[in-house]
């Protein structure tokens, strides 16, 4: 199978200036976008260009190291954290080409420092500073999302416990000229909100909306906001978590830095009571450790949200 890029089809992908989310009109725009495609590009996020570029730079420097150097941080078999490529779990799996470094950033005492690159020397400091800023943007967005649904602004944040988790997945896609190979297979994120820093030049991310794959254009200083499955559960289906995938590029390598939030381990998450009514009955059962459940479903080719439906 060859994956179409549809590059000759102009698509308008939603953009929101999130510095304006105190206005009622912008909140309504946010609500409408999240209820339809669940994904947009955020400008006005307040993170400086230098900070975004520095994060991209240390990620690129790490991936440019010799293989032996990167393998010092390899994930162990059947482990998610560390450096590696996709696990091959079945013979008929779609082929992918992506190397990634998965790290837990918060809570700080849960970091596994043996997996944090020491080269480049400022990798850890840069990731820490970037993650603090992303966490603040995520919290502001979570509050705005709650307000857009006429909920108390901490309604989503309160579900996460005292020790919410923030993880990073730094993705690196080498050039690949085989059009049947994907960078990442179609999936739903395990987060409530994923904030993605895209490559500055190379496109590749596609989001499924209205049954069609749409390429997310590159806007160098914008952040891609993508709702994860847990937000669809908490909002009882009002907000959508889109399926997305990544195409490979025949000539150019591409990188991206995803930051994903997660509730405290073992916290049970379900639709908020305020969003369950006679006219919108409860759609999903509650779930603990959605991250693991989502991954299990992904490996079996199932949609985790369909599996959680009552
Ligand atoms: O590389 C990208 O643009 C997206 C990666 C992604 O979907 C993920 O890390 O969950
Ligand atoms: Fe994703």
TrEMBL record:
A Pfam family per the record: 2OG-FeII_Oxy
The UniProt record lists the keyword Oxidoreductase: yes
Source organism per UniProt: Eucalyptus globulus
GO molecular function: metal ion binding; oxidoreductase activity
Source organism, top-level taxon: Eukaryota
Span of domain Fe2OG dioxygenase: 164-263
Keywords annotated in UniProt: Iron, Metal-binding, Oxidoreductase
Keyword Transferase: no
PANTHER family: OXOGLUTARATE/IRON-DEPENDENT DIOXYGENASE
Protein name per UniProt: Fe2OG dioxygenase domain-containing protein
Phylogenetic lineage: Eukaryota, Viridiplantae, Streptophyta, Embryophyta, Tracheophyta
UniProt similarity note: Belongs to the iron/ascorbate-dependent oxidoreductase family.
């Amino acid at each position: 199978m060859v994956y179409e890029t549809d590059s000759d089809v102009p698509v308008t992908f939603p953009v929101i200036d999130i510095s304006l989310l105190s206005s009622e009109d912008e909140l309504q725009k946010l609500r409408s976008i999240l209820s339809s495609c669940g994904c947009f590009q955020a400008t006005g996020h307040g993170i400086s260009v230098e900070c975004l570029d520095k994060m991209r730079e240390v990620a690129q420097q790490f991936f440019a190291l010799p293989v032996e150097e990167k393998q010092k941080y390899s994930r162990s078999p059947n482990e998610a954290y560390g450096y590696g490529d996709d696990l091959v779990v079945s013979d008929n799996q779609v082929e992918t080409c992506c190397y990634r470094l998965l790290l837990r950033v918060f809570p700080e005492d849960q970091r596994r420092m043996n997996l944090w690159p020491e080269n480049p020397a400022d990798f850890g400091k840069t990731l820490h500073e970037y993650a603090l800023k992303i966490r603040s943007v995520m919290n502001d967005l979570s509050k705005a999302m709650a307000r857009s649904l006429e909920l108390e602004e901490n309604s989503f944040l309160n579900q996460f416990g005292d020790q919410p988790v923030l993880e990073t997945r730094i993705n690196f896609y080498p050039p690949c000229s085989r059009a049947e190979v994907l960078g990442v297979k179609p999936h739903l994120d395990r987060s409530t909100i994923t904030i993605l820093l895209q490559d500055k030049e190379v496109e590749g991310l596609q989001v499924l909306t209205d049954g069609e794959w749409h390429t997310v254009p590159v806007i160098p200083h914008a952040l891609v906001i993508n709702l994860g499955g847990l937000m669809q559960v908490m909002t009882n289906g009002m907000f959508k978590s889109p399926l997305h995938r990544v195409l490979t590029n025949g000539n150019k390598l591409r990188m991206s830095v995803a930051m994903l939030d997660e509730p405290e381990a073992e916290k049970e998450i379900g639709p908020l009571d305020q969003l369950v009514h006679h006219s919108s009955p409860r759609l999903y059962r509650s779930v603990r450790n959605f991250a693991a459940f989502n991954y299990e479903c992904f490996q079996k080719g199932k949609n985790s949200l369909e599996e959680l439906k009552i």
